[in-house]
Write a structure and sequence with these properties.
This protein is 41% helix and 15% strand. It is an alpha/beta fold and 222 residues long. A four-stranded mixed beta sheet has the order 1-2-3-4. Strands 5-6-8-7 form a four-stranded antiparallel beta sheet, with helices on one face. The mean pLDDT is 94.
Length: 222
Amino acid sequence: MNLIFLASPGNPYGRILPEDEFKFLLDFCNTNEIYLIIDAVYKDLYVDTKPYYPTDAISEYIFYTNSFSKKFSITGWRIGYFFCHNSHHDDISYIHDYIGLSSPSPLQQALAIYLKTCNYSKYISNIKRIILNNINLCMDSLNKNGFECTNVDGGYFVWAKLPEKYTDGLDFGLKLYENFKTAIIPGQHFGEEWKQYIRINVARDEKELRKGVENIITMVNV
């Protein structure tokens, strides 16, 4: 093993890695010369416990990446940032020049102005309140109708096991879209062992989410 990629909160589970496990992983990677890339894209979208990130422990083997895409709902802008040890800086910059170069300058400037002028704490608190409400709405409804939803620590996805009637998330998703024009991500997208699972994005307007969940439940009972 040469590389570990860690997202915390994760996708699709929404799990946050506890601080003690994180520190163990850091020590393990440094000791065994294994590269660790930490994806903190859902960093501020946590439910209860604030995620731990070792931004002060960047080493030759530890990398940290984050993005503005999720929390500001600007996924198409492709603006983020990356921390690494000085020994990797030139090589990473060289590669990046060939695969991405940079996001359009007007978008970067617009984001910079917003960050300087917005009340970020108020903004993120409101976003978290909306997402938590939607998570609870979705999980409560599905759990009452034969689904098994995994508890969410952060992010904005609900990971649910289908009722016994359905054993194939892809088949379920295709029929759901064909009949109700409602889209989910089948579990197979994350590995064949998750074939009976689906992922639901709850970062939607509450009215739209309610309708989508209603369609999912109706599909199960057809």
